[in-house]
Amino acid sequence: MDKKILFGRMRRSYFFMIGITGILIIFALCYLLPVLIEWDPVATSIVNRFIPPEYFQDGLRGHVFGTDHLGRDVLIRLLIGGQYSFRLAFVVVVLQMSIGTVMGIVSGYAGGWVDVLIMRICDTMLSIPGLVLAIAVMAILGASTLNLILVMTISGWVQLCKVTRNNVRVVKQQEFVFASKGLGANTWRTMFIEIFPNVTTNILILGSQRIGMTIIMESSLSYLNLGIQAPAPSWGNMISTGRQFLVTQPWLILAPGFFLMLSVLSFNFLGDGLRDVLDTKRRV
Length: 284
What we know:
12 helices; mainly alpha; 284 residues
């Protein structure tokens, strides 16, 4: 697709513009604002506990979103927690996309017993709710960042595999694939040089949406104390702690809840926008 046409479709897609704007704003806040804030995200100060939000009356030197039960500034913990969530989500989604894409291409192209075997593995994985599987594995292996990445990767590659496999089954019947084989291209070249570039659209769309889903899963596990461990900040463990003080100090749960909602919505909008932009059959 021509670059001018591509950028034109981006500008005309409301979903894409809303999604990318929301993501850029959140990224800018999480990665640039902490440089200007003097508070330590893990240092406690009992004398400063439960200070209500001061907003911007003292600029960033005050406690913009207040402090928690240990006197830690909520804003800096919110932003650092966002950094953890985004880094984790991107690593997990890249692994999910890599595994799901390779398995899907092999399954769709090879067919036969290879396709049956991979699809039965996918069906088995889909029969187990992802969060339930994650809770079970984390409870057995213990809570750590490596285990968190492992369990979220295991529970998330299946959908990408099935979508890729269905697309490959269609593309491999195209004339250019038969021509490539006729010119002597081997199996691996046919799969990953000829077919793969023609099935990337749905992979990118699904991958962008899975970032939001991964952030939710990480927050859910952290809420259950099976994800990022305290004192390191995470939106999930901030919400878990704040629910104990919901009536008297509601800012402890409202701030991370709002950022979590905004992040997931932005990535979902981005996914819908990418569908509008990359699918040439859709009008924008």
